[in-house]
């Protein structure tokens, strides 16, 4: 049943007609349980509250697969305004961006131009920007852009997905760049030729990547709600005397709240991934696909109306 529901919600995440309908509905169907609002200004009080509770944050202006230059430039403007607001309100927040929202599918030169604008402004305020990973077909281009930017900017990181066969080699290739990496399992629908079909293999590979990245001496974000992965990381850093300021746990807003709080109380750095914006539909469907229990958020939203 879990396998069927995962495929179903991943299929829905690519449906353009439903995406258009979702923008008209707003967040009536539970999405407000896992996003910070439809504008950054709506998210500011929540970020402030999370900071006061001991959490760091990374914000993501939702949107992907942009095929219009004007739309991509609008995403750039939104990112820059959000960076200014983070600095103005003295929020403990980084920023995550999807390169397809900034023109990756239009041209490499365009997305590099846009990322230069974002990173230069973020550097001015001491804010780190992470390039989110997307589906495997775009992985080579995203990592190529990351390497190009990393030669000039220290305040840029990226993401590696453990369900892809290529990820072990990618971590090796990135090693000379001293990368800040967010390590995740992966949330896109992938062909068996590109990704491990078995959950056990995905989990094993994530542990392998966590160990490699940490022992390489690079800052590591372990982005998982899986307590087995968290316990593995804690055991590993204790075994190798890795300081707590060399890694962090990252979790999605609205997911495993008690676990997040428990880790903060134990003195670990926990960063909450907080998306915002009107283009919430694809993100929401992938969250439902990842964990069937997340469907309860949607049902609660519907029944409370």
Per DSSP, the total helix count is 12
Number of strands: 8
Spatial strand order of the main sheet: 1-2-3-4-5-6-7-8
By oligomeric state, this entry counts as: single chain
Structural class: alpha/beta
Query: What number is the mean pLDDT?
Result: 88
Helical content stands at 40-55%
How far the N terminus sits from the C terminus, by CA atoms, comes to 28 Å
Which strand-content bin applies to the residues? 5-15%
Please write the string of helix (H) and strand (E) elements.
Answer: HHHEHEHEHEHEHEHEHEHH
Main beta-sheet annotation: 8 strands, parallel, barrel
Question: Gyration radius, to the nearest Å?
Answer: 18 Å
Shape by Cα distribution: globular
Model regions low in confidence, pLDDT < 50 over at least 5 residues: 297-305
Could you give the topology of this structure?
Blueprint: H1 2-13, H2 16-25, H3 40-52, E1 56-61, H4 69-88, E2 93-97, H5 108-125, E3 129-131, H6 139-150, E4 156-161, H7 167-174, E5 181-184, H8 199-215, E6 220-223, H9 227-239, E7 247-252, H10 257-265, E8 270-276, H11 281-290, H12 295-303
InterPro entries: FAD-linked_oxidoreductase-like, PRODH_bac_arc, Proline_DH_dom, Proline_oxidase
Pfam family, one: Pro_dh
Catalytic activity: L-proline + a quinone = (S)-1-pyrroline-5-carboxylate + a quinol + H(+)
């Amino acid at each position: 049943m879990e396998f069927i529901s995962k495929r179903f919600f991943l299929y829905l995440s690519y449906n353009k007609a439903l995406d258009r309908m979702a923008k008209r509905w707003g967040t009536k169907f539970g999405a407000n349980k896992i996003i910070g609002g439809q504008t950054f200004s709506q998210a500011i009080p929540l970020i402030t509250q999370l900071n006061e509770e001991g959490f760091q944050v990374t914000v993501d202006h939702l949107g992907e697969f942009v095929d219009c230059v004007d739309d991509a430039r609008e995403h750039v403007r939104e990112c820059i305004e959000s960076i200014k607001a983070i600095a103005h309100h003295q929020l403990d927040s980084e920023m995550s961006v999807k390169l397809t929202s900034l023109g990756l599918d239009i041209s490499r030169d365009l997305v590099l131009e846009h990322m230069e604008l974002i990173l230069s402004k973020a550097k001015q305020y001491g804010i780190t920007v992470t390039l989110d990973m997307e589906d495997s077909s775009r992985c080579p281009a995203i990592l190529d852009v990351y390497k190009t930017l990393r030669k000039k900017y220290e305040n840029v990181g990226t993401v590696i997905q453990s369900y892809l066969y290529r990820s072990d080699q990618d971590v090796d290739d990135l090693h000379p760049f001293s990368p800040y990496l967010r390590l995740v399992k992966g949330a896109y629908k992938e062909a068996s030729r590109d990704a491990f079909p078995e959950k056990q293999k995905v989990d094993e590979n994530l542990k392998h990547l966590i160990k490699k990245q940490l022992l390489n001496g690079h800052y590591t974000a372990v982005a998982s709600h899986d307590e087995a992965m968290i316990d593995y990381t804690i055991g590993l850093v204790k075994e190798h005397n890795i300081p707590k300021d060399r890694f962090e746990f990252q979790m999605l807003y609205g997911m495993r709240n008690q676990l997040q709080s428990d880790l903060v109380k134990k003195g670990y750095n926990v960063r909450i991934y907080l998306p915002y914006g009107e283009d919430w539909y694809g993100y929401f469907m992938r969250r439902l696909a990842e964990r069937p229990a997340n469907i309860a958020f949607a049902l609660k939203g519907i029944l409370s109306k």
